[in-house]
Amino acid sequence: MVKWISKISWGKLVLSGSLYAIFSIIVRQIEALITMRYYQMPEFFGVWSKAMMPASPAGRPSFGPPPLQFFISSSVMTLASGIMLGLVYYYVRDLLPSGFQKRVFFFADLMIGFEFIFFTLPVYLLFNVPLELLVSWFISGFIILLFASFVFVKILK
């Protein structure tokens, strides 16, 4: 068995993943309310998934809020993401500097850098998403990852 896996406190991992999910869902909902106009622009209807914007009886995407199934799926995936980020923290924690504050910001910097390289830049290059919306996603992701780093360093010691 890999040594770092044997050191995992699964209860603390699920707790920290749950806190990540709750905070992330709140931040993303606030961000969605602020940027709602972009989700309702017809020129971007093709970008959104059918799960988020199901077709109306007329065949066009609906203007209402996403269905309950979308929120349930999103919440489960966000919890899974929080647990996976916690596992990443477990994996690299011995490589991080000592000291609470240094550890928080170093791990946050690492995750935010990966967010920028593996999400923000490819989305900008590949998809027809308004730049303002992409910047908003990056800022909300920055806030979420900073909070997550605090939670992981505090709980997963």
Feature tags:
157 residues, mainly alpha, 70% helix, 6 helices
How would you characterize the overall build of this protein?
- The protein is an all-alpha fold.
- It has one domain.
- It has helices at residues 3-6, 10-34, 36-39, 68-92, 100-126, 131-155.
Task: Describe the protein's topology.
Layout: H1 3-6, H2 10-34, H3 36-39, H4 68-92, H5 100-126, H6 131-155
Helix pairs in contact: 2-4, 2-6, 4-6, 5-6
Number of helical segments?
6
Ranges with pLDDT <50 over ≥5 residues? none
Per DSSP, what share of the residues sits in E-state strands of 2 or more residues?
under 5%
Structural class: mainly alpha
Q: Largest beta sheet, briefly?
A: none
How far is the first residue's CA from the last residue's CA?
A: 21 Å
Domain module count:
1
Approximate helicity band? over 70%
Shape category: elongated
